[in-house]
């Protein structure tokens, strides 16, 4: 099971992750990232990996 890790100091609330994996990530009204599923299902993993790559500040990573 992979686990999403967020470096909150780096997150700037751009929402790129939400655009790619909206069931997993959400930027709330205050611009703070909410991770709905820190341990995403296998069928969500591709989108999550895309989101990790797309994050402009490198705030996301996946840990095993
Ligand atoms: S893509 Fe990166 S910087 Fe943008 S909201 Fe997601 S974690 Fe934060």
From TrEMBL:
Transmembrane segments: none annotated. Its cofactor is [3Fe-4S] cluster. GO terms for molecular function: 3 iron, 4 sulfur cluster binding; electron transfer activity; iron ion binding. It comes from the Bacteria. It holds the Pfam family Fer4_13. The keyword Magnesium does not apply. PROSITE patterns: 4FE4S_FER_2. Signal peptide: none annotated. InterPro entries: 3Fe4S_ferredoxin, 4Fe4S_Fe-S-bd, Fe-S_cluster_ET. Residues 2-30 form the 4Fe-4S ferredoxin-type domain. Keywords: 3Fe-4S, Electron transport, Iron, Iron-sulfur, Metal-binding, Transport. Ferredoxins are iron-sulfur proteins that transfer electrons in a wide variety of metabolic reactions. This is Ferredoxin. It comes from Blastococcus tunisiensis. The lineage of its organism: Bacteria, Bacillati, Actinomycetota, Actinomycetes, Geodermatophilales.
